[in-house]
Specification:
By secondary structure, the protein is an alpha/beta fold. The protein has three domains: about 160 residues, FAD/NAD(P)-binding domain; about 130 residues, Guanine Nucleotide Dissociation Inhibitor, domain 2, CATH 3.30.519.10; about 80 residues, Guanine Nucleotide Dissociation Inhibitor, domain 1, CATH 1.10.405.10. It is about 30% helix and about 20% strand. The protein has eleven helices and 14 strands. Strands 1, 2, 5, 6, 7, 8 and 14 form a seven-stranded mixed sheet that branches. A five-stranded antiparallel sheet has the order 10-11-12-9-13. Strand 6 and strand 7 form a beta hairpin. The longest helix has 17 residues.
Length: about 400
């Protein structure tokens, strides 16, 4: 431990593990530590089910009807979710015509523009051109393009069209769903990137108490643990390790629900994502519902896990998610949590301490990916080159 590293990483959330892997692949000497004995941090997968009951202080043991506790792997913060059975609600000719336009759109080929200037025409005007109703606009902007507000409506339409195009191409590639979800829960993802880091020489230490982050002249120089100091040039960590360097910008409510049935009106899908746009429920923030099942090795046979989340806007957050919970009835067991949304107070370029953001209410990884790319750019001064990362990975694993 008494060594010098290029980068020390604290916390094994997905953001930290991905950055650890990236830095190792880039030839940096990386030490990765976590005070917890498990991977995943606040986005961990909890198993067995008895541990979930203990974590949320639910009295008693899970009932026998829920099967074996070890058959459960419950994600505290699910991402990467699937969408099945929703498109049937919007089978309108105008919407189909719009999707055909999006599929054919190529920002490098003006012949595909059909009178729309992608750099100047606002997205609001594109919807108007295809005569789309408000419900369809809400669905398209929030469930397909994955915007969290309606600010995009008055921006040039090119980015939005490309976002919808990405959704459509992903749907075409994977069949019923444009999303992927790992078997046995999202806890597998941090471990995958940890293994990648280890292949490139990264060192991992779980169950390692962090006593002090050592800063001299305003810049990080190391981390003290169990009386030993590991020196470093840069530090990556989640907000829990540097509470004095982050600020609260809001809260998220999440409710994990155990069901014995699929969600109604989803064609008995074994997984789905539902996004309730803010306008539909007179809110400023969307409400997210995702459901996974025994098909993903995360629940006992015949059981389903649905998780509802949204950004808190009032003093009664559980009332805010009632429209989503009504979609899930009857619910066998609920686990409610309210988490602070924490962001770093500065960019970290002076202290060389780079802090990730806590996970927001969304059930997809777009904002997490944005955070990863942002931290990478602040650390290295350059944009993250995914193709270069892919080439280096293929050197180890071979072509996909």
């Amino acid at each position: 431990m008494n060594e010098e590293y290029d980068v020390i990483v604290l916390g094994t959330g997905l953001t930290e593990c991905i950055l650890s892997g990236i830095m190792s692949v880039n030839g940096k000497k990386v030490l990765h530590m976590d005070r917890n004995p498990y991977y995943g941090g606040e986005s961990a997968s909890i198993t067995p089910l008895e541990d979930l009951y203990k974590r949320f202080k639910i009295p008693g043991a899970p009932p026998a009807s829920m099967g074996r506790g070890r058959d459960w792997n419950v994600d505290l913060i699910p991402k990467f979710l699937m969408a099945n059975g929703l498109m049937g609600l919007f089978e309108k000719r105008r919407f189909r015509k719009f999707l055909v336009y999006v599929a054919n759109f190529d920002e490098k080929d003006p012949r595909t523009f059909e009178g729309i200037d992608p750099k100047k025409t606002a997205m609001r005007d594109v919807y108007k051109k295809f005569d789309l109703g408000q419900d369809v606009i809400d669905f398209t902007g929030h469930a397909l393009a994955l915007y969290r507000t309606d600010d995009y409506l008055d921006q040039p339409c090119c980015e939005t069209i490309n976002r919808i195009k990405l959704y459509s191409e992903s749907l075409a590639r994977y069949g019923k769903s444009p999303y992927l979800y790992p078997l046995y829960g999202l806890g597998e993802l941090p471990q995958g990137f940890a293994r990648l880091s280890a292949i490139y020489g990264g060192t991992y230490m779980l169950n390692k108490p962090i006593e002090e982050i050592i800063v001299q002249n305003g810049k990080v120089i190391g981390v003290k643990s169990e009386g030993e100091v590991a020196r470093c040039k840069q530090l990556i960590c989640d907000p829990s390790y540097v509470t004095d360097r982050v600020e609260k910008v809001g809260q998220v409510i999440r409710v994990i629900c155990i069901l014995s049935h699929p969600i109604k009106n989803t064609s008995d899908a074994n997984s789905c994502q539902i996004i309730i746009p803010q306008n539909q429920v007179n809110r400023k923030s969307d409400i997210y519902v995702c459901m996974i099942s025994s098909a993903h090795n995360v629940a006992a046979q015949g059981k389903y896990i649905a998780i509802v989340s949204t950004t808190v806007e009032t003093k009664e957050p559980e009332k805010e998610i009632r429209p989503a919970l009504e979609l899930l009835e009857p619910i066998e067991q609920k686990f409610v949590s309210i988490s602070d949304l924490l962001v770093p107070k500065d960019l970290g370029t002076e202290s060389q301490i780079f802090i990730s953001r806590t996970y927001d209410a969304t059930t997809h990884f777009e904002t997490t990916c944005d955070d990863i790319k942002d931290i990478y750019k602040r650390m290295t001064g350059s944009e993250f080159d995914f193709e270069e990362m892919k080439r280096k990975k293929n050197d180890i694993y071979g072509e996909d």
